[in-house]
Every structure is written in C-alpha cells, then in structure tokens.
C-alpha cells in the first residue's frame, strides 16, 4: 500500500517547524545566559560579566582564582563575586560584584601606574596657576627665567598641538607689575583672563588679557569696568548652569541651589560632586529601582553637613567621598541670577573663579573620564573611583594650591609640585598615567 505523499510532506513540515521553534527557544535561552548544569541536571540562568580595563590584557582574579584576562566576557551563576583586575606596574582594582541572571555586569576598571613617569613643563618657578573652564588650558606665571622678558603670564594647552608650541606668553612682568601677585580668573568661554591686583582686600588694578595672543605695550586698566565684567560673566554662567540643572531630579535640584556649596558637574555631566550646608535625607532611589542593574557599592542617602558626596544622575545613586574636604577660605555658590548691582569686590571675583576651579574650593578635581576623582590630602596626590572605592596614590608630594588636573584624554596629570628642587620652588610637572 502506497503512503500518501501529501501526508508525508505535512509530517516533515511539522517536524521541521517544531525543530525550528525549539532551536529558536534554545538559542534565545542560550543568549540570555542559560546553561546546562551537569551537577544539578537542570538548565540554570547565568549572568554576563563584561571584563574591560585600561590598559588592556590585565589579569582577572575572581574569588581569589586567576580566571582570564581583560578584555573578556564570562557567564557566571548568580552570586556575589570578588573581582580583582591587576597588571604588573599598576595598582590593582578590586570590587565585589553581584551577578544576576540574564543581566550584564561591567567592570570598566581604570588602572593607574604605581610609579608614574614625570616630565617638567616649566623650569623657573611657578607661583600662580589657574585652569580654564573647559579644562583644556592652564594659565600660569613664570618667575626667575634667565631672560627677564620671559617672566610673565603664560597659557599652556593640555591638548596635543603638533603645529605650534603648547606654551604661549600672553603678558610680561614689569618692575611694577608681577602677575604672580594677581588673582587669575578665566572668562566663562575661555577667551580672556582677568588679572586682579589688590592690597589688603582693596583692588588696586586689573587687566583683561586675550588668551590667544601676546598683549604688548601699555596694558589698559579695567578696574572701572569690573562691575560690568562681573555682570556679563555671571550671565554667561547662568546660561551654562540652568541647562545642566534640568538634568537633575527636583529634590536634588532644590538641595544644590539652596542647601549646598561646591557643586561641580563631571566632564560628561552625568555625575555631580557637592557639599550640603545642613543635615538632610535624600528620598528613596526611584531611578535605580527601575534599572535592572546599578553600581553595587553601598550608597549614602543620609547627608551630613560639610561632607562631600557624588550623585550619579543615570542611576540615582549617591556616595560619600570620605577623603574629600572643603576649603576654609572660599566656597562656591552656583550662579543662577545676575547681581542687581554687582560690586567689584574681591569676594565677588573669587566667586567667579570658584565656578569652575574645584581645587580652589576643595581638595577634589574630576578626572577626565568622569569615573574617578583626583584627591589631594596629606598623603599627596591620589585618585579614587567616584563611589569612594580603589584609592591609589600617584605621588606622595602634595601640590601647591591643590593644583593637580588631568589632560583632556586622561593620559597625563599636571601638578604644581616640587620634585628634586629647592623647598620653595614649584613647577608644573606632568605625570604619565598610561
């Protein structure tokens, strides 16, 4: 008896479709991290640990066992793991990471050299220094150069410049005017520098200098125009601050504008460092509750007056930086309105300087990648993760004026420090962080 060929084809099609459906389901489960367990004879869900680091090819030690090298991906059973990433010549990075079923956990470890190679930027004594608002240039004053005309005010570019020198002298010292004795204030757009000379708190003279070319001849005194300059620069900061604050949850915006000082956004605008002026409690982290996976470090929602905290806008998490401290002389108040009658006082000018120079108001500076913070304390120059983990020492010698800033890509750190020189001689030194 001949079998029905139509039925045969139907059976084949049904089997094929069934196998395709089963294969697709298995592929989906496999892609989600499910793996067969021979021990339990079941299919278990796993989580993906994405191991990345800079520099690459660093050893990965999980629960005290050498497992792989970065960059790599591992499927692990849901649990808590102690992950250490290390490389010869660099400080190790360690963190306890929870692995959750069907979720990806990232390391993104930044390793810093134990002994950073150094190179001098200046040689003849720097006594005054200031960082541009965008973090790409340093203004500094040079003294004791062999040629007297070489002493004066300079601008150093932190970006690699293949066509010209990174150093530009924008003004010379004179017998009656030494820029080392002035207050240096960058304009919000970085195109000008205001130099203010004072005696016992009273302004004696001031000058507005271009940062793009050398000013020659007699400098025009700008003291009479200071109220107008302050007003114009306050207005520019308002246009910068208001859009930034739209990214902030309402409850934190209230704190930052009315109950906090030294508010500084990270370079990528996704994190904020700040110091509350009173004891406060942050509400429950509703942002983090909606996300499948967030930073595993224990956060702090109870704020203590004068402590320093970092808030992560993407995850809604808040961490205390216990190694941070405020300056006793100057505190930054975020500018959100123009003074009705701006006065040309030293205090108002210092507020303009404090808007972008966090080393002027505290001992912290954001690192270029927004994942670390530079800390200046009794042990010298340190770098720590934004959540307070993995503190490492870059140099045991502390810088003058707390000045230690990264270049634009984070491969170097520039510090006003003393290395192998007379005790009272400080110069700009570059530390290689690659």
TrEMBL record:
<dbReference type="InterPro" id="IPR013229">
    <property type="entry name" value="PEGA"/>
</dbReference>
<dbReference type="Pfam" id="PF07676">
    <property type="entry name" value="PD40"/>
</dbReference>
<feature type="domain" description="PEGA">
    <location>
        <begin position="47"/>
        <end position="111"/>
    </location>
</feature>
<dbReference type="InterPro" id="IPR011042">
    <property type="entry name" value="6-blade_b-propeller_TolB-like"/>
</dbReference>
<protein>
    <recommendedName>
        <fullName>PEGA domain-containing protein</fullName>
    </recommendedName>
</protein>
<dbReference type="Pfam" id="PF08308">
    <property type="entry name" value="PEGA"/>
</dbReference>
<keyword id="KW-1133">Transmembrane helix</keyword>
<feature type="transmembrane region" description="Helical">
    <location>
        <begin position="12"/>
        <end position="31"/>
    </location>
</feature>
<keyword id="KW-0472">Membrane</keyword>
<dbReference type="InterPro" id="IPR011659">
    <property type="entry name" value="WD40"/>
</dbReference>
<keyword id="KW-0812">Transmembrane</keyword>
């Amino acid at each position: 008896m001949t079998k029905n060929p139509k039925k045969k084809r139907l059976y084949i099609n049904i089997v094929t479709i069934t196998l395709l459906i089963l294969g697709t389901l298995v592929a989906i489960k496999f892609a989600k991290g499910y793996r067969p367990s021979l021990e339990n004879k079941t299919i278990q869900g796993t989580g993906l640990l994405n191991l990345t680091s800079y520099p690459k090819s660093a050893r990965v030690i999980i629960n005290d066992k050498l497992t792989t090298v970065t960059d790599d991906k591992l499927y692990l059973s849901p649990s808590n793991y102690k992950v250490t990433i290390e490389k010869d010549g660099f400080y190790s990075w360690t963190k306890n990471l929870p692995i959750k079923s069907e979720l990806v956990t990232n390391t993104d470890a930044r390793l810093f050299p134990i002994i950073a190679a150094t190179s001098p930027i200046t040689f003849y004594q720097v006594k005054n220094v200031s960082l541009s608002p965008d973090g790409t240039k340093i203004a500094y004053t040079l003294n004791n150069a062999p040629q007297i005309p070489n002493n004066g005010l300079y601008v150093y570019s932190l970006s690699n410049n293949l066509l010209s020198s990174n150093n530009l002298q924008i003004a010379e010292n004179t017998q009656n005017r030494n820029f080392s004795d002035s207050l240096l204030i960058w304009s919000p757009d970085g195109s000008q520098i205001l130099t203010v000379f004072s005696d016992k708190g009273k302004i004696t003279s001031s000058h507005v200098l271009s940062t793009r070319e050398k000013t020659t001849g007699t400098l025009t005194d700008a003291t009479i125009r200071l109220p107008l300059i302050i007003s114009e620069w306050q207005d520019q900061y308002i246009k910068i601050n208001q859009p930034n604050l739209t990214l902030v949850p309402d409850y934190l915006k209230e704190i930052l504008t009315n109950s906090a000082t030294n508010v500084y956004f990270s370079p990528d605008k996704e994190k904020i460092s700040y110091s509350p002026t009173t004891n406060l409690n942050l509400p429950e982290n509703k942002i983090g509750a909606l996300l499948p996976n967030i930073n595993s470090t224990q956060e702090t929602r109870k704020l203590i007056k004068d402590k320093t905290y970092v808030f992560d806008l993407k995850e809604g998490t808040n961490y205390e930086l216990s190694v941070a401290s405020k300056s006793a002389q100057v505190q930054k108040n975020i500018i959100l309105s123009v003074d009705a009658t701006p006065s040309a006082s030293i205090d108002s000018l210092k507020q303009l300087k404090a808007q972008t120079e966090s080393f002027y108001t505290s001992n912290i500076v954001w690192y270029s990648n927004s994942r670390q913070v530079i800390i200046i304390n009794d042990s010298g120059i340190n770098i720590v993760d934004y959540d307070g983990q993995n503190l490492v020492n870059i140099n045991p010698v502390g810088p003058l004026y707390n000045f230690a800033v990264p270049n634009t890509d984070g491969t170097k750190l520039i510090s006003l420090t003393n290395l192998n020189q007379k005790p009272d001689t400080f110069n700009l030194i570059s530390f290689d962080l690659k």
